[in-house]
Amino acid sequence: MTIVALTLSVLGVLGAWVVMTYAGRRTMYLWGGALTIALFTAIGGMGVKLHTSSSSSMAWAIGSLIAVDGFVANLLVLPVTFVLVSEIPSSLLRSKSVVIARNFYSAINILAGVMTPYMLNPMAWNWGALTGFFWAGAAVIGFMFTFFMVPESKGRTTAEMDILLEQKVHVRKFKVTKVSLTHIDGDGLP
């Protein structure tokens, strides 16, 4: 099962090269979040059944969904994260924004890395596959943040992103808003 999961993850990364060429970053992130919510909810639901009866087929189904989640994450979410973190911030604040984002990412991963073994361990919290409900809830929070806060940056230059952010264009309108770069400075020269 490990080889299958890792193969799916590699295929997801390779597929991301193609998908990122055609799909928008925000679109990929939203679809990835929605699929992650569905997968983790299904894992949690199977965990309810698994807690009431021991079934090896249910355990295999849960493992398969975890492998599919690895594919989805590597196809739609993880590659886009690194692109967004460098495309969205203002060019003047980019290095600071990347450092803050990376530190936040590391802190969340440390927290998840400490908590998840407790969730899964039968001698600790003993949630087992019910942990899927916890991560589905976390994915809902991420989805909501993406929906309300992450603009579409595909096909935009840093100057266009700066103008759209400065004009406080709603994130859902970034994709269709036209930007004129002819009036960047005060005298109207490009």
From TrEMBL:
Entry GO terms, CC: membrane
Keywords: Membrane, Transmembrane, Transmembrane helix
InterPro entries cross-referenced by the UniProt entry: MFS_dom, MFS_sugar_transport-like, MFS_Sugar_Transporters, MFS_trans_sf
Membrane topology recorded in Swiss-Prot or TrEMBL: Multi-pass membrane protein
Pfam families according to UniProt: Sugar_tr (PF00083)
Compartment list: Membrane
Transmembrane segments: 6-23, 30-48, 60-85, 97-120, 132-151
Superkingdom as given in the UniProt entry: Eukaryota
Domain Major facilitator superfamily (MFS) profile: 1-154
MF-aspect GO terms: carbohydrate:proton symporter activity
Family: Belongs to the major facilitator superfamily. Sugar transporter (TC 2.A.1.1) family.
Protein's UniProt name: Major facilitator superfamily (MFS) profile domain-containing protein
Lineage, highest ranks first: Eukaryota, Fungi, Dikarya, Ascomycota, Pezizomycotina
